[in-house]
Amino acid sequence: MKKFSAGCLGLVAVFGVGAARAQVPEIRLARQFSMGYLQFNVMDHEKLIQEHAARLGIPEVKVTWVQFNGPAAINDALLSDSVDIASGSPSGMLTIWGRTHGNAAEVRAISALSTQPFLLNTRNPEIKTIGDLGKCKRIAVPAVRVSSQAMTIEMAAAKLYGIKEFARFDTLTVSLSPPDATAALLSGAADIDCVFAVPPFMQMQLQHPEIHTVADSFEIAGGPNTYTVAYTSARFHDRNPKLYQALYNALQDATDRVNKDINKASGYWIEDGNYKLAPDFIATVAGGPRVKWTMVPERTMDAATFMYQVGTLKILPASWKDYFFPEAYGLPGS
Questions:
Q1: Under a CB-based contact definition with an 8 Å cutoff, are residues 232 and 97 in contact?
Q2: 57, exposed or middle or buried, with CB in 10 Å at 0-12, 13-18, 19+?
Q3: What Cα–Cα distance (Å) separates residue 23 from each residue in 16, 59, 62?
Q4: CB 60 within 8 A of CB 21
Q5: Phi then psi for 230, rounded to 5 degrees?
Q6: Cα separation, 63 vs 40, whole angstroms
Q7: φ, ψ for residue 285, nearest 5 deg
């Protein structure tokens, strides 16, 4: 057996430490199909995380982007440590917050991303109100029971029939990605005759003469409410304070850039999704009169309260700050 001198061992130790310190930090971000994440598209194309990380003394960072359909898949990826940053609806975020509350991997929101409505569209002329939804063969949503669309149907049923009847239409819902749901609705395939659609797919659906809107999410919610949020685990937040701050700063920067140039941000979205859609159409949707690209959470406590009332959420938060990280506390949220 060969013996190593103390000097050699010292060199090994030094080079070992140097190699560990030279390791490039990584951040893995997940987004979904709808047009609710334009800040992410801007951050990706304009390398904003890398830019803000460098300003904070992190000269190099590996940034990876992945795409999922629906909050169930994205939450599973976050829980399994396959991604670091998730994005989706407030209800999807609240679901995973409730599951992880109080442990080291507790998930909280970083910030809101947008406030915008989504529409329940149908090709069945007999369906004109929420009370007619029982006539739907199938109602497509991004994820049954978890997505904001699924929860909004439950809220509408509860308002119309009472809280005990919140799940009246749940058996009609099926999980489909927005592109697949749109294709099914337009073709009438797979018994999909109702879709709680997201932008810009809901606008695409309404270009078909046989499709009309039954319900509007803002009307059901009682006013404008947050459509999308970004969220992560306390583990990532606490272990990577500088990288997290770089991410938060990049989100602020990206939000400003989306609002200053909606055409450029919309173009990034088209490119990233490889969509064959007219840039002017997408920019019109993204810059619509009821659309806000904002980090401020709106009416998220309404969603949390409803989820608690129907048993989807086992913990009733005292305020929106219970499920957001402190960096967002200066925002006028709700």
A1: no
A2: exposed
A3: 11, 11, 10
A4: no
A5: -110, 140
A6: 12
A7: -65, -50
Pairing mode of beta strands 119-122, 212-216: antiparallel
* Count of C-beta atoms within a 10 Å radius of residue 277: 14
Per-residue pLDDT of the chain (334 residues; tens, 9 = 90+): 444 444 444 444 444 444 444 467 999 999 988 899 999 999 999 999 999 999 999 999 999 999 987 788 899 999 999 999 999 999 999 999 999 999 988 999 999 999 999 999 999 999 999 999 999 999 999 889 888 999 999 999 999 999 999 999 999 999 998 899 999 999 987 799 999 999 999 999 999 999 999 999 999 999 999 999 999 999 999 999 999 999 999 999 999 999 999 999 999 999 999 999 999 999 999 999 999 999 999 999 999 999 999 999 999 999 999 999 999 999 999 9
Q: Specify the domain boundaries for CATH 3.40.190.10 within the chain.
A: 23-116+225-328, 119-221
CA distance 83 to 75: 9
* Cβ proximity of 268 and 281 under 8 Å: no
Distances (CA, A) of 151 to 1, 38, 100, 217, 314: 67, 23, 20, 10, 15
Residue 61 tokens read as: 């960072």
**Number of Cα atoms under 13 Å in the Cβ half of residue 282:** 21
Residue 300 structure tokens: 């998220």
Q: How many CB atoms lie within 10 A of CB 219?
A: 11
pTM of the model: 0.89
Please state which of the four CATH numbers 3.20.20.70, 3.40.50.720, 3.40.30.10, 3.40.190.10 is assigned to the domain occupying 119-221.
3.40.190.10
Q: Strand 107-115 and strand 226-233: pairing?
A: antiparallel
DSSP, residue by residue, 75-116? HHHHHTTS-SEEEE-HHHHHHHHHHHTTSTT-EEEEEEEEE-
Q: Which CATH class is domain 23-116+225-328?
A: alpha beta
Q: Which one-letter amino acid corresponds to residue 278? A: A
